[in-house]
Amino acid sequence: MQTVLVTGSKGQLGNEIQVLAPAYPQFNFIFTDVEELDICKREAVDGFFSENKIDFLINCAAYTAVDKAEDDEEKCYQINKDAVGYLGEASARHGVKMLHVSTDYVFDGKSYIPYTEDAPVSPATVYGRSKAEGEQRLVSVLESAVIVRTSWLYSSFGNNFVKTMLKLGRERKRLQVVYDQVGTPTYAADLADALLQIISAAELVPGIYHFSNEGVCSWYDFTLAIFKSAKIACDVLPIESREYPTKTPRPHYSVLNKQKVKSAYNLRIAHWEDSLNRCVQKLENH
Ligand SMILES: NC(=O)c1ccc[n+]([C@@H]2O[C@H](COP(=O)([O-])OP(=O)(O)OC[C@H]3O[C@@H](n4cnc5c(N)ncnc54)[C@H](OP(=O)(O)O)[C@@H]3O)[C@@H](O)[C@H]2O)c1
């Protein structure tokens, strides 16, 4: 049986892989988070790989607090760049096939057509730069690495836009949400399944891939769909980004083109609204 190490497994994506693991009985999973394996500790990473026979590594560990990263650059770079390099080096030394997760924030959002994997990166934030440099570091130490960029991730686990809106929608009569930032939400359960399908494929093709749910929307449309799904009667008003200033700029357009991952691994991807309904249902039943 092949062994899959999942790092950062207490986050949104890591938790979703834990939920799905029983559906992939051909794999033996080892789930770690910072307590069991701090990926910033180079020797500990190599030691862990020596002690455990690992076939695949899925790195879900990351520094994901986009605004906080502006004042916490060193830690953000340690986790999103240096540590990714340590995982890559250890994977190269121990013959491990590594999947790493990255982000639409490697782009500046100035495009108006969906980003393909070879579009030039141009991150506008510390977080985006740390992730872009993490990708480059990984490829430099592990040619066989598979990098999957995703966008607007949410889940029934952790904190995210869907859970925040469900809470606010029940507390308030009216909410203002930006309509000039357009992208595609991604249910972490769907990304988790895609990653497990990728490692189940006969051949792992190295390189960068884009994955999100199908379709396109603004945060305003997303909010309307969340309230519709949860039957919340809250008035939603569309506003422009300049009316809702954030510490860091958010990309105006971050739709990812998913053709490459779909054809390489024969994936069928759900529409964002269908996946949102599944997640809301799961949250409502708990
Ligand atoms: N969230 C999004 O909207 C989004 C969008 C696009 C791409 N992505 C990417 O998707 C991936 C998964 O994101 P996510 O939302 O599932 O992240 P998440 O919920 O923030 O989970 C990351 C996990 O990594 C852990 N971690 C942090 N430092 C670590 C270390 N040194 N060693 C081991 N584990 C460590 C975190 O622990 P603590 O919580 O204790 O720090 C957390 O459990 C990331 O690569 C992220 O960059 C996310």
List strands and helices in order, with pairings.
Layout: E1 2-7, H1 12-20, E2 27-31, H2 42-51, E3 56-59, H3 73-94, E4 97-103, H4 126-141, E5 146-150, E6 153-154, H5 161-171, E7 174-178, E8 182-183, E9 186-187, H6 188-200, E10 207-210, E11 217-218, H7 219-230, E12 235-239, H8 259-265, H9 272-284
Parallel strand pairs: 1-2, 1-3, 3-4, 4-5, 5-10, 6-9, 7-12
Antiparallel strand pairs: 8-11
N-to-C span: 34 Å
Number of strands: 12
Number of helices: 9
| CA-based shape | globular
Characterize the biggest β-sheet. Answer: 6 strands, parallel
The helix/strand class is alpha/beta
Strand content: 15-25%
Stretches with pLDDT under 50, minimum 5 residues:
none
> Compute the gyration radius: what is it?
19 Å
Word description of this protein:
The structure is a single chain. The chain is α/β, with parallel strands linked by helices and 286 residues long. The protein is built from nine helices and twelve strands. The strands form four sheets. It has a six-stranded parallel beta sheet, with helices on both faces. It has a two-stranded parallel ribbon with strand order 6-9. Strands 7-12 form a two-stranded parallel sheet. Helix 1 packs across helix 6 and helix 3 packs parallel to helix 4. The radius of gyration is 19 Å and the shape is globular.
